[in-house]
């Protein structure tokens, strides 16, 4: 039986696998599938990606028991992907980024991914965008970087943030949704090499008090917050 499986990578569509010896797989089930030369955790999706090409299907290797994703979350990811022009796979990755929700998944990984610190360099268009942002100086302004997914908009902002931090100033980054914070935090650590402070509705009062005190004492230089949580 053909089964659509979305893997938490940059792809905007599920890959089609054969259910093999597994029966009664349903949307939301967590499975392990062969992906390239390695194995990847994926989620059984709601619709098969149509294709005019004929190719041999690989079998799903294993179903992870006692853990699945709600169908409503699948619908939400499909909508969020279309509305924000972001890949479904990367949105799924963000949703799976919550350690509380993925502890049982991590136990089934044969290899643990190690976070790497990358060196980034701007291309010509990114350098121009950064130069445009810098022209505003310290005066208030509203700037929008427009570009397709993966064009490096975040890196341009990161470069501008780095210059602000070098001047011993503070930065507040606002995100539209709480579940975006985990992946954004990971990208931030890869770029800056340190862990930013996170503020949203699931952060405890004690932690918020420490963050606020750090802001007031000018000891805390950067905070990442999610929508509706700073009110």
Blueprint (SSEs and pairs):
Layout lengths: L1 E5 L8 E4 L10 E7 L2 E7 L17 E7 L2 H14 L3 H8 L3 H8 L17 H11 L18 H14 L4 E5 L5 H12 L4 E3 L5 H12 L5 E5 L5
Parallel strand pairs: 6-8, 7-8
Antiparallel strand pairs: 1-2, 1-4, 3-4, 3-5
Q: Can you put this structure into words, describing what you see?
A:
The protein has 231 residues and is an alpha/beta fold. The protein folds into 2 domains: 2-106, GIY-YIG endonuclease (3-Layer(aba) Sandwich), CATH 3.40.1440.60; 124-226, P-loop containing nucleotide triphosphate hydrolases (Rossmann fold). Helices cover 34% and strands 19% of the residues. It is built from 7 helices and 8 strands. It has helices at residues 71-84, 88-95, 99-106, 124-134, 153-166, 181-192, 205-216; strands at residues 2-6, 15-18, 29-35, 38-44, 62-68, 171-175, 197-199, 222-226. It has a 5-stranded antiparallel sheet with strand order 2-1-4-3-5. It has a 3-stranded parallel sheet with strand order 6-8-7, sandwiched between helices. Strand 3 and strand 4 (38-44) form a beta hairpin. The longest helix is centred in the middle third of the chain and has 14 residues, at 71-84.
Keywords:
single chain; Rossmann fold; three-stranded parallel beta sheet; elongated; five-stranded antiparallel beta sheet; alpha/beta; 19% strand; 231 residues; GIY-YIG endonuclease; 7 helices; 8 strands
Tell me the number of strands: 8
CATH topology of the largest domain: the name is GIY-YIG endonuclease
The major sheet is characterized as: 5 strands, antiparallel
Q: Which of globular, elongated, flat, extended, rod-shaped describes the shape?
A: elongated
Tally of contiguous helical segments: 7
Output the structural class.
Answer: alpha/beta
Query: Distance between termini?
Result: 50 Å
CATH class of the largest domain: Alpha Beta
Report the average pLDDT across residues.
80
Number of spatially distinct domains: 2
**What is the spatial order of strands in the main beta sheet?**
2-1-4-3-5
Range of helix content: 25-40%
CATH superfamily of the largest domain: PriA, 3(prime) DNA-binding domain
């Amino acid at each position: 039986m053909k089964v659509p499986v979305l893997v938490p990578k940059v792809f905007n569509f599920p890959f089609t696998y054969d259910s093999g010896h597994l029966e009664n797989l349903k949307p939301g089930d967590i499975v392990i599938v062969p992906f390239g030369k390695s194995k990847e955790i994926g989620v059984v999706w709601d619709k098969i990606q149509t294709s005019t090409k004929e190719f041999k299907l690989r079998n799903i290797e294993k179903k992870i028991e006692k853990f699945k994703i709600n169908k409503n979350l699948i619908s939400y990811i499909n909508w969020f992907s279309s509305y924000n022009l972001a890949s479904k796979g990367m949105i799924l990755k963000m949703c799976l980024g919550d350690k509380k929700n993925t502890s049982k998944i991590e136990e089934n990984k044969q290899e643990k991914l190690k976070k790497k610190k990358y060196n980034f360099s701007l291309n010509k268009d990114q350098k121009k965008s950064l130069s445009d942002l810098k022209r505003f100086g310290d005066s208030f302004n509203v700037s929008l970087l427009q570009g397709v997914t993966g064009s490096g908009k975040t890196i341009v902002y990161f470069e501008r943030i780095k210059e602000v931090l070098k001047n011993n100033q503070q930065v507040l980054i606002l995100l539209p949704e709480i579940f975006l914070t985990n992946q954004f935090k990971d990208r931030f650590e890869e770029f800056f090499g340190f862990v930013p402070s996170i503020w949203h509705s699931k952060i405890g009062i004690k932690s918020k008090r420490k963050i606020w005190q750090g802001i007031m004492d000018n000891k805390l230089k950067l905070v990442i917050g999610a929508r509706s949580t700073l009110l």
